[in-house]
Amino acid sequence: MTTDLDIAAGVKVPATTLAREATELIRDTTSELIYHHSRRVYFFGSLRGRERDLSFDPELLYLGAMFHDVGLNEAFHASGHRFEVDSANEAKRFLQAHGVPEDSVRRVWTAIALHTTPGIPEFMEPEVALVTAGVEYDVLGIGYGDLSAEEREAVVALHPRPDFKNRILRAFTDGIRSKPETTFGNVKADVLEHFVPGFERGDFVRTILDSPWTE
Predict the structure, then answer these.
(1) pLDDT tens, 131-186?
(2) Percent of all residues in the chain with a pLDDT value above 90, rounded to a whole number
(3) Rg of the chain over CA atoms, in angstroms?
(4) What is the pLDDT of residues 44-90, one digit of tens each?
(5) Residues 131, 112: contact at Cβ < 8 Å?
(6) Residue from 81, 92, 90 nearest 30 by CA
(7) How far apart, in whole angstroms, are the C-alpha atoms of residue 75 and residue 174?
(8) What is the pTM of this model?
(9) Residue 71: which of 188, 201, 165 has the closest Cα?
(10) CA 171, chain centre distance (Å)
C-alpha cells in the first residue's frame, strides 16, 4: 500500500514486499542522514528518468538507491573494499535471499558499484544510469535546473536535507578514512585530502613509473 510518505512530485515508491523490507532494513541499519539521502536519490533518479523519457523498473531503481551508501556503515570500515562494492554486495545478498532473478541482481549491483564513477553509468541500463543521476543530483547538484522548483520542494519536504553538504562529507570521511587505499583513482580521494590530515592520494603516473618493470 502506497502512503503519502511514499509519493513526491508524482513519483511513487514501489508498493512491494521487497521495497518495504529494503526500506525497513536501511532505516534500521543506517543513519537518518543516509536514509533520507537514499530516498531522495530514488525520487530524483525517477524524475530524471521521466525527464529523459527512459523506461526503467522502479523497484530495481529503488533498491539501488536504498542500498547505495550502506557500505559507509561501521561494519564495513575494515573490509578493505571500496564502500561502493560493500554496498553493492549487501544489496546482492539481500536480493538473492529474496529470490530475485540474477539479471536484476546484476543491474542493482552494477548501479551501486558504479555510482561514483562518472562517465560510464549514463551509457548503461536505465536503472544503472538513474541511480547515478539521482546521486549526482542530490549530492552535486548536476542537472539542478532540469527539474522544477516544485519537484525539488516536494521531494525535500518529504525527506529534508538540513546541513546536508557538511553532514554527507563527514559521513563519507568517517566511512572511508580507515581504508584510504580504496580511494585510489576515484572521487573519494578528494574527501580524504580535504578532511584527513596526512592523507596522501595515490598517483597514477608514479604508480606506472615506480612499477617493477624496467621499461
Answers:
(1) 999 999 999 999 999 999 999 999 999 999 999 999 999 999 999 999 999 999 99
(2) 97
(3) 18
(4) 999 999 999 999 999 999 999 999 999 999 999 999 999 999 999 99
(5) yes
(6) 90
(7) 12
(8) 0.96
(9) 188
(10) 13
Going by C-alpha positions, the residue among 173, 155, 67, 159 that lies closest to residue 110 is 67
Q: What is the pLDDT of residue 28?
A: 97
Written as nine digits, the cell of 207 is 604508480
- In the block, which residue shows the cell 523519457? 53
42 grid coordinates: 530514488
3-state secondary structure of 8: strand
- Phi, psi of 12, deg, nearest 5: -110, 140
CA dist list (Å): 21 to 104, 128, 139, 214: 17, 21, 25, 55
Distance of alpha carbon 164 from alpha carbon 170, whole angstroms: 10
Alpha helix segments (H runs only) across 70-163: 83-97, 102-113, 126-135, 149-158
